[in-house]
Model the fold of this input.
Amino acid sequence: MTTAPHPVQSAPTQANQQTPPCVMVIFGGSGDLTKRKLIPALYNLATNNLLRKEFAVVGIARSDMSTDDFRKKIDADLHEFAPESIDPKIWERLQTAMYYMPGDLGDPARYDQLKAQLAEIDERHGTSGNRLYYLATAPQFFAEIVKQLAHAGLTREEDGTWQRVVIEKPFGRDLESARHLNQELTQVLHERQIFRIDHYLGKETVQNIMAFRFANGIFEPIWNRRYIDHVEITSAEEVGVEQRGGYYEGAGALRDMVPNHLFQLMTLTAMEPPVSFDANAVRDEQTKILKAIQPMSPEEVLTRVVRGQYGEGVIDGTRVPAYRKEPSVDPASNTETFVAMKLLIDNWRWADVAFYLRTGKRLPCRVTEIAIQFKRAPFVLFRDTPVERLSANRLVMHIQPEEGITLRFGAKIPGPHLNLGSVNMDFKYSDYFGATPSTGYERLLYDAMSGDATLFQRGDMVEAAWSVVTPILDVWKALPPRNFPNYGAGTWGPAQADELLKHDKCHWREIPS
Ligand code: BG6
Done:
């Protein structure tokens, strides 16, 4: 069953207001993130009239380039990565407010130069002394850049200006390093100046989890252990490690996806209603969930967490190589490319409800979803119906690539007997709201410029997330895997991931690939 699309009028909200004047300084200005996401996102904001005309960008990176070369480069990049039709007027205006500074990120003289250039840009573009420093560099430079900025007086909020720093992931590689980085940052910045990004929060459907739960009166009363049997969160990728072997070898699926993206999905699904949509109110509730996750003993890590690495296989009819054969990967690598785990949240709402999480590369399709499995209705009335027909209600929040929500329920199959079948009620975002070009970074940049940190991670949240994951990393380090590779590319991961749920008498939702 599919609901008919109705046009929905968008209400004039504060989202229709423009960002305040500012200069965005991108460290890593010639890199991949800048060209694929940041510049297209700025262009999309400008197209939607959300970006103030008193705005400019300074790209900083090692590559030796003039501002003219930079403008030519981003023009070519935008044509490669942005919507087919670029409005030349809007783009030209934006492009002429983009500057470039080559330089070594550790050289203090660069920051004095930057200071002088920013003052000039303020004069030329009316950017009022406000700055958004975007750290799109390798993580080992985060603390150094922030220290240098502070040393040059570039983070001081004087005369009503604001100075904010956006930090890309990964934020640390375990609890200790995340704590250390937090300490280094907070030596020179206030927490309110730090915007730790998790690009999953830029996805409309992730933001919609809160709207779905808290703007509808009918779901919240059943959103608990009394009615929900378990929750499955899947984030699957069809691609392998691509050209990122160098980074991925030191990260692995657990660090790369779990304490950040998957925990965002989990906390938004499990948190209590916040007292307001104020940044701290929302993040307080998310943090409480992270802190309530039952800590795992080393024995529990062995039984509740599954790791895997892909061997060669076939995806979409094409043979693809094993992880160990990918570029920049050690041929004897023990890095995991798949992880599945069972987590329990020790609070009144969720006690004994399992949250199963899984993520991996080279799985059969690209899909991210949250499946809420409700408990079965009592069997009494349907004693004669085969048990496989008596499926329990399930609500699936589709995050990507399809964005929407599906509710499965039982219905009578037409005929003289009372036979039951399962039907789906589907809501697709695109049917109602159309599809607008988006990189997922528009809202995040808009919010960072507007000073709304709701969709960014707070320091204590990041540490709480690493506290859950670090014991797993410790056990894995002590006991290297002996059976890698243990799943074929194009399959749903190692058999143990299925056994994890079978042991609890359930199974992963079958996702059509
Ligand atoms: C990144 C990870 O944070 O998220 C990548 O480093 C992963 O390994 C990516 O591919 C997934 O993002 P998305 O938006 O494609 O689901």
Notes: Residues 245-270 form the longest helix (26 residues). Residues 169, 237, 256, 368 surround 6-O-phosphono-beta-D-glucopyranose (CB under 6 Å). The first strand starts at residue 22 and ends at 27.
